[in-house]
């Protein structure tokens, strides 16, 4: 994790050296002066992401890391290529940037360099109705992209909580998964082609195809690479007809184990609800407080079915029967509708400014290990020195072989140093508990810089291979340094 205490006040006093003035001239020649930001106030938004840690530092007048020396906004692939060539010449660190909605420090600069803002790269290039594919530049806002598809009676089916404040490129960078992943799968399953500008400025193209067997998957080297191997500038997705019907349900279970058992049976029966969300007792309390039928069923589960009319009816019938056999009861649907109304809201920033800090940690494991994982996390957070910390969890992405568990912890903010230390201590305990319980340390938020301490433990020799690939593609180490535990 990042642990410096850079003061915003001190950063305002920094003067640029002759070399950075040379950069500014060369980058201005490439993109135009109007597409360069260099004032402190202009660069300040690019020195943070949406992580609660960043918000905590900002509250106390500190930066979570450093500021970029300048921000460059290219308008074409050619301009991006030239930016990378110049950056290699001067060995300037580069951070690709979409909307900064990540929560793992993936878009934070850790060395003074440039941030490449990709939001000008926002054109939808092609929509193929026969093949049901769409090609777009990666700087497009996620909500606007989905709205465009909806007007054509199509959907990508990718609905992260950050939908309205993230870009398509951000989804690819952190290997995102949306709230309807049980039906539509995660971002890597939607990609059939892409274009990447690699660090030396060349354009690499993986042409769209439904599937290929021409060696290892080149596209998957870049999905989840978090800007460390190149800049993804274009992507082709498979898309789906907009669903004819949607059916929403809320089920109460007497404990989370029975809820998980019902969902396991659903996922292993070839049924694919669009959304499945199961909350433990702590996270269910506020959702069911106004609905007495859930009094003896304190773990709430939301099921949403989408698709063809007939298919929705079949999947609904099968799924509700499994819930019934596991002791679940269907009650008032309003808790599910309330979640749908706020599903894209972010609440963590408001917490910090009201005197608390709330953070989330998403992991994944097999069905066999999920209960062990939950108990280990609960024990890690509810230790003797964390009496003032609240713990809760829910399960929100499901597969035939396992699921993602999304843990939330909430604690009071005291002094910056004390709060940051306790925050880091909880992360340390939870990550170690995850690895010991056989889980994977990230399901969809990625690694960034906040999970650097544990990525090597999880992927082992795989990290040596990743480092070797980095050395080949980016020998000058300009691309998003410090992320994925890569130098």
Can I get a quick summary?
This protein is α+β, with helices and mostly antiparallel strands. The chain is built from 19 helices and 20 strands.
Question: Could you characterize the architecture of this molecule?
Answer:
The chain has 19 helices and 20 strands. The protein is of the alpha+beta class. Strand 7 (124-128) and strand 8 form a beta hairpin.
Second rung of CATH, namely the architecture of the largest domain = 2-Layer Sandwich
- The number of distinct structural domains comes to 4
Structural shape? globular
Helix content percent band: 25-40%
Q: Any key phrases for this structure?
A:
single chain; 487 residues; alpha+beta; Uridine Diphospho-n-acetylenolpyruvylglucosamine Reductase, domain 2; Uridine Diphospho-n-acetylenolpyruvylglucosamine Reductase, domain 3; Alpha-Beta Plaits; 4 domains; 7-stranded antiparallel sheet; 5-stranded antiparallel sheet; 37% helix; globular
Topology diagram in text:
Elements: E1 6-7, H1 8-11, H2 18-31, E2 36-37, H3 40-43, H4 52-59, E3 62-63, E4 70-72, H5 77-90, E5 94-97, E6 114-117, E7 124-128, E8 133-137, H6 142-151, E9 154-155, H7 168-174, H8 181-184, H9 187-190, E10 191-197, E11 203-206, H10 219-222, E12 231-238, E13 240-241, E14 245-253, H11 256-267, E15 275-279, H12 281-288, E16 299-307, H13 309-325, E17 329-330, H14 334-341, H15 348-353, E18 356-366, H16 370-381, E19 390-399, E20 402-412, H17 416-436, H18 452-459, H19 461-473
Parallel strand pairs: 4-6, 5-6
Antiparallel strand pairs: 1-3, 2-4, 7-8, 8-12, 9-13, 10-11, 10-12, 14-16, 14-17, 15-16, 15-19, 18-20, 19-20
